[in-house]
Amino acid sequence: STAIHWLASVLGPDLVILSGGVATSGTFLLDDLNAALDQKLSFHHRPQLTVSASHQVMGAIGSGLSAWKLV
Predict the structure, then answer these.
(1) Do residues 50 and 16 lie in contact, with contact meaning Cβ atoms separated by under 8 Å?
(2) pLDDT in tens, 3-35
(3) Are 30 and 51 in contact (CB under 8 A)?
(4) N or C terminus of the chain: which is more exposed, having fewer CB within 10 Å?
């Protein structure tokens, strides 16, 4: 929640998409993150938190894009 708090304070995004292992935890962790953000954010814009629908392939896509830059 600290990283999302910092992100919301500095950049003010409307939406934060969670991926990877965080995404597989389902609504349990999402509910805890929302509660922690409610406590930490005061006057900052509160981003909506959501889970990536394609969380299982994001690592492979990122690796492919990184490799493509080296070619």
Answers:
(1) yes
(2) 888 888 888 889 888 877 776 777 778 888 888
(3) yes
(4) C
Q: What is the pLDDT of residues 43-66, one digit of tens each?
A: 878 888 888 777 667 677 778 888
The structure tokens listed for 53 are 């629908």
Whether the CB-CB separation of 8 and 46 falls below 8 Å is answered with yes
Count other C-beta atoms under 10 Å from residue 24's C-beta: 12
**Six-digit token string for 29:** 């962790």
How far apart, in whole angstroms, are the C-alpha atoms of residue 39 and residue 41? Answer: 6
pTM to 2 decimal places: 0.66
